[in-house]
Amino acid sequence: MPKQLYALFGGTFDPIHNGHLLPVMALAKEVGLTQVNLLPNHIPPHKQQPDTTPIQRVAMLKLAIEGNPLFTIDMRELNRDKPSYTIDTLEEWRKEHGMDVSLAFIIGQDSLLSLPSWQRWRELLNYCHLLVCRRPGFTAQTESPELKEWIVQHQTQDIALLHQKPHGHLYLAHTPLEDISATEIRQQIREQKDYHTLLPEKVWQYIQQNQLYI
Ligand code: ATP
């Protein structure tokens, strides 16, 4: 029996969509995750503030994962009521769970490329593995020599290692490409285009009923 690999998947989820859900469900099968904790973040001050409230973003998360036992929601970043860095969240998670259990933090390929702009990014692997989902338009090829070197140094294709070791590795997954972004969905809504195939039916209904993003 492999050791359980805990998983966190952070995002703004404004709104949650199939580009989040389908790759992560495939990733769970690929590496053997039994639970993925969605971690809705506070919108950082430098990002455009959304029309939706944290309560509405969480309501959409709940509807999206209804009946799907793979997913749970971790409210810690929202409860903190101020933007929090991933590294702080991981430190806090480790204080609760100790350093021995295996933890993965899931990101998309675009986030991998932006990693050097994250707070104390080189220390992330001291707390977790990073599992990277494929995303259309992005590859792990990077212009940044320091990121390139860091990827080579930490990358593994050994799934068993992710379960055995508590942290420290980077795994580039073979997940399906889903050409969807929350930005595109918000745009489609403003332009009154049909977007309902891009996210779960119940989330679509919630957006319609509450007239979000118009
Ligand atoms: P926005 O368009 O508002 O920037 P987004 O659609 O990129 O939002 P986020 O909530 O910012 O969604 O993303 C959370 C995480 O999910 C990030 O790590 C991002 O890379 C990943 N992600 C989002 N969409 C996809 C997708 N279509 N395929 C793979 N990963 C994705």
What this model shows, in words?
The chain has helices at 18-31, 54-65, 76-79, 86-97, 109-114, 145-154, 159-164, 182-190, 201-210, and strands at residues 5-11, 36-40, 71-73, 102-108, 129-133, 170-172. The chain is α/β, with parallel strands linked by helices and 214 residues long. It has a six-stranded parallel sheet with strand order 3-2-1-4-5-6. It is globular and about 45 Å long. It starts with a strand and ends with a helix. Residues 11-14, 19-20, 23, 107-108, 110-111, 133, 135, 178, 180-183 line the site of adenosine-5'-triphosphate.
- Name the CATH homologous superfamily: HUPs
Q: Using DSSP, what is the number of strands?
A: 6
The rounded distance between the terminal residues' Cα atoms is 49 Å
Q: Name the hetero compounds present.
A: adenosine-5'-triphosphate
How much is the radius of gyration in Å? Answer: 17 Å
According to CATH, what is the topology? Rossmann fold
* Shape designation: globular
Strand content: 5-15%
The main sheet comes to: 6 strands, parallel
Structural class: alpha/beta
- CATH top level class name: Alpha Beta
Strands ordered across the widest β-sheet: 3-2-1-4-5-6
Number of domains: 1
What's the rounded overall pLDDT mean? 94
Supply the number of helical segments.
9
The CATH architecture can be given as 3-Layer(aba) Sandwich
The H-and-E topology, N to C, reads as EHEHEHHEHEHHEHH
- Poorly predicted runs are none
The share of residues in helices is: 25-40%
Keywords: ATP-binding, NAD, Nucleotide-binding, Nucleotidyltransferase, Pyridine nucleotide biosynthesis, Transferase
GO molecular function: ATP binding; nicotinate-nucleotide adenylyltransferase activity
GO biological process, one term: NAD+ biosynthetic process
Pathway: Cofactor biosynthesis; NAD(+) biosynthesis; deamido-NAD(+) from nicotinate D-ribonucleotide: step 1/1
